[in-house]
Specification:
single chain; 461 residues; mainly beta; Ubiquitin-like (UB roll); Porin; 2 domains; 16-stranded antiparallel β-sheet; four-stranded mixed β-sheet; 5 helices; 22 strands
Length: 461
């Protein structure tokens, strides 16, 4: 009996030792082969890989490392398809094969832009085409194959916009530093000059252009590692408004009686993103914090110091259920601010679904968004004829329910939604399709007893 127990115990230890040895078995990266990158430089793809030729990986780490590699390459938004396979060459030597299909990078598209927020335009103005700006948007993504973008936009209609910009994420040999430059001018016949006590924007409208903005800007960014980026930016804007606004309608618009302002702004931000999909994350974490200074003085006029921070966490649960928590906060100093500096809810991740039709200003605000979602179905729509950059149309449909909370403080004012606890809830459907384009249909209700359908969307770039 004792002998039998000894044999069983010995067999158990041998099995455990063998399993442990296999898990800690090392494989060496002997070669990396990249295929399908017609425009994109190979080193841009290699930049996203957490290993290089000559590195070694434990067997137990292989699956996780390959998944991370695929996510990081996908989050460049340069490719519609990514396939990674492993070939064994010599003993414990691996060749990593990466096959990509590039997206369409050049978009010479007609563009229609709304004067109002989408749901306001839909509900308050019956989707009137008269309240649109239209023209041409020329965008060349991956301009030189280094993940850089060039954009030229010319719009007319209810307003006029002309802008040009170039963004290069990698401008040095180590692919750690980049920059952006841009300039724009805009002219508006209608501008929001104040916010009413029921949190609606009050508009000033004439047959001529009542506001003109001229701006130039530049930024420098440094990618500290795969997930973290630091940015320093400098903007200069010259703004002119009809003198009736600053003299009669809202003397606090610029916080002085001048109808024209030169507005310099400098800022610093840090962003971190380690998620499976940057456009519609289901797993991972993101955070961002920033500091910006507008104006050259401490207080008075358009002088403003803004502190902003946000944190997002995404969880993958069982049976294709997912949940997320997104929280954000902003503080503007001094607390007495010019009207143009008071925007709060709607900045960055500060969001309250169900209150889209309201303008909630503030000098200190915070929101939290809770979402529970489930994948309903995923399928692919084949294209009956050959299109190089669109072989098929993938579709993924998610059902969700959500609840949001927030608070926005503004001194010396009594409004419907300021200086009180805010809460909303609802449910909806998200459709994620080609190039990570997302359409959202949400049925929301808020603490005012109001309810309705709201539509949202964002592009894949």
């Amino acid at each position: 009996m004792i002998k039998k127990q000894f044999v069983l115990l010995l067999s158990f230890f041998i099995l455990v030792n063998k399993t442990f040895a296999q898990a800690n078995e090392k494989f060496f990266i002997a070669a990396i082969k990249i295929d399908g990158n017609k425009r994109t430089k190979e080193y841009i793809i290699l930049r996203e890989m957490p290993f290089a030729i000559g590195d070694s990986l434990f067997k137990k780490e292989l699956t996780k490392t390959i998944e991370q590699t695929k996510n990081q390459i996908s989050n460049t938004n340069l490719f519609s398809e990514i396939k990674i396979t492993l070939d064994s060459t010599l003993y414990k030597n691996l060749q990593v094969n990466i096959n990509v299909k590039e997206r369409l990078y050049f978009y010479p598209l007609p563009k229609i832009q709304l004067v109002d927020r989408f749901n306001t335009w839909l509900k308050d103005y019956n989707a009137s085409f008269n309240r649109t700006i239209y023209g041409l948007d020329l965008t060349q993504y991956n301009f030189s194959g280094r993940r850089d973008n060039f954009n030229l936009t010319a719009l007319t209609g209810y307003a006029r916009v002309l802008s040009i910009g170039y963004n290069s994420l990698y401008s040095n040999a180590k692919l750690t530093e980049g920059f952006s430059i841009g300039a724009s001018l805009s002219e508006n016949k209608e501008i929001g000059y104040n916010t009413s006590t029921n949190n609606r924007i009050l508009f000033y409208k004439k047959d001529y252009f009542t506001r003109k903005n001229y701006s130039i800007g530049a930024s420098y960014n440094k990618r500290n590692n795969y997930f973290k980026r630091t940015t320093i930016f400098l903007n200069l804007r010259y703004s002119i408004v009809d003198d009736s606004i600053t003299n009669f309608k809202n003397k606090n618009y610029f916080n002085n009686n001048n109808s024209h302002q030169l507005i310099p702004e400098i800022g610093y931000s840090v962003s971190y993103s380690n998620t499976d999909k940057i456009k519609y994350p289901l797993k991972g974490m993101e955070y961002n914090y920033s500091f910006s200074k507008r104006g050259v003085g401490i207080k008075g006029g358009i002088n403003n110091t803004t502190l902003y921070g946000s944190f997002s966490k995404y969880f993958t649960l069982k049976n294709t259920f997912y949940t997320s928590v997104v929280t954000a906060a902003i503080l503007k100093l001094p607390l007495e601010q010019a009207y143009i500096n008071r925007r709060a809810i709607g900045v960055g991740n500060l969001d309250l679904r169900g209150l889209e039709l309201y303008q909630i200003d503030g000098v200190a605000a915070a929101t939290t968004n809770l979402t529970l979602s489930k994948k309903i179905i995923a399928f692919v729509i084949p294209i009956p004829f050959k299109i190089k950059y669109v072989p098929n149309i993938p579709v993924r449909i998610m059902a969700k329910t959500f609840s949001d909370f927030g608070y926005s403080y503004i001194p010396n004012q009594t409004t419907l939604l300021n200086n009180k606890f805010l809460y909303t809830a609802g449910f909806g459907i998200d459709v994620i399709t080609l190039y990570d384009i997302v359409f959202k249909v949400e049925y929301s209700f808020n603490q005012l007893g109001q309810k309705g359908v709201f539509l949202h969307g964002n592009s894949g770039f």
